[in-house]
Design a protein that fits this description.
This protein is α/β, with parallel strands linked by helices. It is 26% helix and 31% strand. It has helices spanning 42-46, 58-61, 64-71, 86-95, 186-192, 200-208, 227-232, 256-264, 281-286, 292-302, 320-331; strands spanning 5-9, 19-23, 28-32, 48-52, 76-82, 109-117, 120-127, 135-140, 144-146, 149-154, 159-166, 170-177, 181-184, 216-218, 224-226, 236-239, 243-247, 269-273, 306-310, 335-336.
């Protein structure tokens, strides 16, 4: 199976939290958090369409300036999804600069911000050519998938679910998930004399959208065939949809813990913060962070397939094996650092 979500921890386990997720077959990227982006070239930043931001502490949000800088003068829409108050934080960044020339740009950049928290969603727009004024686009109804978990982004191929956690300020955790994973079998194509190519994308989208077996797809030779026939002949094969969860900065307490476990339930991969060792559990509580043991326990309770820990306190440089061992003992399996 070729996974759809290809995540990479940009700054390593001690650096600012940023996971760049490449979407295979979609030609674009997503960000989980927006810490420092200076080590990324412009291309992957410009291919990103969304950033799902846990909260607006500097180490999770300073990369917003880089996104804005690279986007100026380009025809693109970039959406930030975050907790209550994130639109005000974006506005504060934008007000820190002078925009007297942006009306002359040939291409119009548009920044959008979706806030969710306390059961409410609201969308804001910041159009570049007008000097980035904050424009209220009104409330957004976000479907609840289970108590405390809402869909904050949805398209045919996948959706993003968020949960509210406690970091002394509202803080979100996120899950990327496919309804089903669609594989194309090269051996079946060869048997039918068909070449792989862009014609397969509409077929895959139709299956992901739940279109019926009679939905017609155009083949490379100009003929059409129903999706049901492609499934029957094994050209398209279905497997369980990929699920990627991301938990950063939260206190080990209810109800946030139950929400985090529900969010990460049965995820193929969980990225989870592990700021402290259990020997410093008191300090972790004071700073509203998890220990490595708590990260492992969360992953074990959620039944995740793979755990990667990150966001270590700088005091543990050189002690990475201890953090990994502590998390692995609680998880009951091996734990990774990335990428």
């Amino acid at each position: 199976m070729r996974p759809t979500f290809h995540p990479r921890l940009v700054n390593g386990p001690f650096g600012d939290p940023v996971v760049l997720v490449r979407l295979l077959g979609h030609g674009r990227n997503l960000f989980l958090d927006l810490g420092d982006l200076h080590d990324l070239p412009a291309r992957p930043v410009l291919k990103a369409t969304h950033a799902f931001v846990t909260h607006a502490h500097m180490d999770h949000f300073c990369g917003m300036d880089t996104v804005i800088r690279y986007s100026l003068g380009r025809e693109r829409v970039f959406r930030v999804v975050g907790p209550p108050g994130i639109a005000e934080r974006v506005e504060g960044k934008l007000r820190g600069y002078t925009w007297n020339l942006v009306h002359t740009y040939d291409q119009a950049f548009r920044l959008e911000v979706l806030e969710w928290g306390n059961g409410q969603g609201r969308l804001w727009a910041f159009p570049c050519r007008e000097g980035f004024p904050r424009q209220d686009q009104g409330p957004v109804d976000l479907a609840e998938v289970e108590p405390g978990l809402r869909i904050v982004h949805a398209e045919t191929a996948f959706r993003v679910v968020a949960a509210e956690l406690d970091h002394q300020v509202p803080c979100l955790a996120f899950r990327l998930e496919e309804p089903v994973h669609v594989n194309v079998a090269r051996d079946a194509l060869d048997r039918l004399g068909l070449e792989p190519g862009p014609w397969l994308r509409p077929a895959k989208r139709a299956v992901q959208a739940g279109s019926g077996p009679d939905h017609e797809v155009r083949l490379p030779d100009g003929r059409t065939a129903p999706v049901g026939e492609l499934l029957e002949r094994g050209v398209i094969r279905l497997t369980r949809g990929q699920k990627l969860a991301y938990v950063a900065d939260c206190l080990w307490t209810e109800p946030g813990l139950s929400r985090a476990v529900a969010l990460a339930r049965d995820a193929h991969l969980l990225y989870c913060e592990a700021a402290f060792l259990e020997e410093d559990a008191r300090r972790a509580r004071e700073r509203y962070h998890l220990t490595a043991a708590q990260a492992g326990e969360l992953a074990r309770r959620a039944g995740v397939g793979e755990l990667r820990i990150f966001h270590f306190s700088p005091k543990y440089r050189g002690r990475e094996p201890e953090l990994l061992a502590e998390a692995a003992e609680a998880f009951g399996g091996p734990v990774g650092l990335g990428p």
